[in-house]
Automatic annotation (TrEMBL):
This is Adenylate kinase. Catalyzes the reversible transfer of the terminal phosphate group between ATP and AMP. Plays an important role in cellular energy homeostasis and in adenine nucleotide metabolism. Belongs to the adenylate kinase family. PROSITE patterns: ADENYLATE_KINASE. It is found in: Cytoplasm. Pathway: Purine metabolism; AMP biosynthesis via salvage pathway; AMP from ADP: step 1/1. It comes from Flavobacterium aquariorum. The keyword Magnesium does not apply. Residues 31-60 are annotated as: NMP. It holds the Pfam family ADK. AMP binds at T32, R37, D58, L59, V60, G86, Y87, P88, R89, Q93, R134, R146. Gene3D superfamilies: P-loop containing nucleotide triphosphate hydrolases. Its EC number is 2.7.4.3.
């Protein structure tokens, strides 16, 4: 079983690349955003709990986010592996993921970070915002705020996974095909 954590700042191309990687390696793609949307839309017990925090303007606690992800992983007992997109985002989530995977006799195989300059990513997101209509991609201040949050909470994962010799950085600038080739080169050498 191969379990890949794909991370990078908003606009780095995680979702686009996840589509290619899940097909090539026959992985189950689990996107934190999709899991949240599913739980909220379907008013699941976990979705109801998350909504309380969100309605109050608070971040959903790591423990609740982890419960949602574990619930989603458990829906795919016969998978070849999981491609985690947007999770973990904090050290405590990474530790919880490691602990959970250990209970099912598995582990994170590798983490791959799509890296790109903030200015390029801001331009990408502003362009995506014009096409997608996503409000959070139409305001440069909000985009930069998301990057600040990423730097504070998610960037420390680099050290966490480097200490386990599971961290791989990939240049996230170039054509979709070029980036896919860089990612597959890393995965093929695991």
């Amino acid at each position: 079983m191969i379990n890949i954590v794909l991370f990078g700042k908003p606009g780095a191309g995680k979702g686009t690349q996840a589509e290619f990687l899940k097909e090539k390696y026959k992985l189950t793609h689990i996107s934190t955003g999709d899991v949240f949307r599913y739980n909220l839309k379907n008013d699941t017990p976990l979705g109801k709990e998350a909504r309380v925090y969100m309605d109050a303007g608070d971040l959903v606690p790591d423990e609740l986010t982890t419960k949602m992800l574990i619930d989603e992983v458990n829906k795919h007992p016969n998978t070849n592996g999981i491609l985690f997109d947007g999770y973990p985002r904090t050290i405590s989530q990474a530790e919880a993921l490691d602990a959970f995977l250990q209970t099912i006799g598995s582990k994170v195989t590798a983490t791959i970070a799509l890296e790109a300059d903030d200015e390029i990513l801001v331009a990408r997101l502003l362009e995506r915002g014009k096409i997608s209509g996503r409000v959070d991609d139409q305001d440069e201040d909000k985009i930069r705020n998301r990057y600040q949050e990423y730097n504070e909470k998610t960037a420390p994962l680099v050290g966490y996974y480097k200490a386990q010799d599971k961290f791989h950085a990939v240049n996230g600038i170039g054509s979709i095909q070029e980036i896919t080739e860089r990612l597959t080169a890393v995965i093929d050498n695991l």
